[in-house]
Amino acid sequence: MRRVLVTGGGTGIGRAIAHAFADAGDAVTITGRRSDMLEDASAGRSIIWQTADVTKEPEVEALFDAPYDVVIANAGGGSSGKVLKTSLASWEKTLSVNLTGTFLTFRAALNTMGAGGRLIAIASTAALKGNASVPAYSAAKHGVVGLVRSIALDVAKSGITCNAICPGFTDTALADEAISGLMKRFDMNRAEATTMVASGNPQARLIDPSEVAATALFLASKQAAAINGHALSMSGGEI
Ligand SMILES: NC(=O)c1ccc[n+]([C@@H]2O[C@H](COP(=O)([O-])OP(=O)(O)OC[C@H]3O[C@@H](n4cnc5c(N)ncnc54)[C@H](OP(=O)(O)O)[C@@H]3O)[C@@H](O)[C@H]2O)c1
Asked: CA spacing 20 to 30 A to 172: which of 37, 158, 194, 229?
């Protein structure tokens, strides 16, 4: 049975990933800061939860008491605001959770990970192209892809792979924040704002978290051993 760790596993994409791996028979641990969310996500499945803030080195190190076979750095987020409206505090907070959090998680994982191990980062389409509304988030996610490509080269001969999944807008609380923001800003109803958010995807829809989970399952499989250092766009053709 593989040991799988999912950061930010209490909600949204991380929760869907945790459920998919647990349903496939893996031993899953989820982390995040809110214990109520972690408890709820683990209910009814053999999922262990442990609170940890991915921006805090000792808390991340403490997660790795034993080796994991699959580690998914999913914790992330960020607020919107063009570059002139971005404070240093907001910039640092966004880089901290998305980029430093992924670095701390993968570094701790690699200390004990054996051959066949899998590192997967949940980046974003904002990792592959600029976005004027979320410069800090886009910079942080571009950084995640740079980190993934660098680690991939470092571990290539060890049988470990390191990849990123780059979803477009996905139907979670994070997308809901963007929808609520548009409703306020343009005095729209929810359906109109959702259509506007989905219009960035050529398929005119939000991605379902289960689609990201299925891709993570594939990247973690033996059949995906040759896929290393890849940033896989899941965006209906947006990029
Ligand atoms: N939804 C989208 O449209 C979309 C698109 C592309 C990429 N993504 C990426 O997908 C990932 C998951 O996002 P989501 O859409 O599922 O949104 P979400 O439901 O808000 O999930 C974010 C998760 O990250 C955790 N988290 C945030 N800060 C943390 C910290 N400092 N330490 C530990 N955990 C932390 C949160 O848990 P706590 O608050 O309890 O800590 C939460 O479970 C993120 O990296 C996001 O950037 C999302």
From this structure: 229
